[in-house]
From TrEMBL:
Keywords: Endoplasmic reticulum, Membrane, Transmembrane, Transmembrane helix, Transport. Belongs to the nucleotide-sugar transporter family. SLC35B subfamily. It is found in: Endoplasmic reticulum membrane. Coiled coil: none annotated. The chain crosses the membrane at residues 33-55, 67-89, 101-119, 131-148, 155-173, 185-203, 224-247, 253-274. It is a multi-pass membrane protein. The lineage of its organism: Eukaryota, Metazoa, Chordata, Tunicata, Appendicularia. It comes from the Eukaryota. This is Solute carrier family 35 member B1. Pfam families: UAA (PF08449). It comes from Oikopleura dioica.
């Protein structure tokens, strides 16, 4: 019997080479998917923000649309309806989402809590303070994804998150705009919002890792639960009747609401696609960067001048994003 020369065996060498090529190809495809999701989410929510501003800030014959709960309820209802149609058309025979309803309800509850805390904080804090506070969103998501979702990250991911938060804070913060005194209630609401963001991310990580639902099921059930939570408040607050009465008086607002809902559906699809493949921490980084890109694009389009602090912040953000895309998952 002759010993087989493992190191020089051409068949084994070819197999190792093929495995290496497969791994490299898989990593490249995952990076490409991340870039696609990042671009799609940023693009959809940039237009989403423009639509939202055109709905809520423009005067319609001297009247302003102020029915926020109505608008969010319609948004979640549209997302849920489209996701339901996609699930019906794309689900394979026997494919069932085994995620318990309570997990989706918890995700939706924390999501609604984050929105409530963030919006209410503006009554006590200046907008720059609120923006800078929400720029720290990836930090509680990073921490609570580990505590709740049992997700571990390497040191590069921690470094990238801290780098992005620092860069976005430097880019968005303008000390001269700070005219509102710091209020304990406002900061408490902001902290509450960040904790809800972290808990929502932790629950999403748990759902993703334990039950492996696809993006369409996550979108359907999360929006269904959000609608069930929001609609009673919409009804009791009077927004339901106010919004329904506003539309016939000013039908010209309908195309903007339609565009708003379309952008929401597209953006949410890519958000849940990102959660499925990369986790909620990556989503929190992308959505936090959206504010940065919104300001940056407005500067580039309208020719405003960036300060030295903003240029430094922009360089830090892009450095953090590039490092995270290439090294954050390894």
């Amino acid at each position: 019997m002759h010993d087989i020369d493992v190191e020089n065996n051409p068949l084994l060498t070819a197999a190792k080479s093929q495995n290496a090529k497969t791994v490299v190809s898989s990593v490249a495809q995952k990076r490409l998917l991340l870039v696609k999701c990042f671009t799609a989410v940023i693009s959809c929510y940039l237009v989403y923000g423009v639509c939202h501003e055109s709905i809520t800030r423009q005067l319609y014959e001297g009247e302003r649309f102020t029915f926020t709960l109505w608008l969010i309820s319609v948004q979640t209802l549209t997302n849920m309806t489209v996701a339901s149609i996609i699930v019906q058309l794309s689900s394979r025979p026997g494919e069932v989402d085994k995620t318990p309803f309570k997990y989706y309800f918890a995700c939706a509850l924390f999501f609604c809590g984050a929105i409530f805390g963030s919006n209410q904080a503006l009554q006590y804090l200046s907008y720059p303070s609120q923006v800078v506070g929400k720029a720290c969103k990836p930090i509680p998501v990073l921490i609570l994804s580990g505590l709740v979702g049992r997700k571990s990250y390497n040191y590069v991911k921690y470094l990238c998150v801290l780098t992005l938060v620092l860069g976005i804070t430097m880019f968005l913060y303008h000390p001269t705009d700070e005219t509102v005194q710091k209020q304990g209630v406002g900061h408490g609401l902001l902290i509450f919002s960040l904790i809800c963001d972290g808990l929502c991310g932790g629950m999403q990580e748990k759902v993703r890792s334990k039950f492996c639902p696809n993006e369409n099921h996550m979108m359907l059930w999360t929006n269904l639960c959000s609608f069930l939570i929001l609609f009673p408040f919409c009804f009791l607050s009077g927004d339901f009747f106010g919004g329904n009465a506003f539309i016939p008086r000013h039908p010209e607002i309908l195309p903007r609401i339609l565009a708003f809902c379309i952008c929401s559906v597209a953006g949410q699809y890519f958000i849940f696609l990102t959660i499925k493949h990369f986790g909620p921490l990556t989503v929190s980084i992308i959505t936090t960067c959206r504010k940065f890109f919104s300001v940056l694009f407005s500067v580039l389009i309208f020719g405003n001048v960036l300060t030295v602090q903003q240029w430094i912040g922009a360089i830090i953000v892009f450095t953090g994003l590039i490092v995270d895309i290439y090294f954050g998952e390894h």
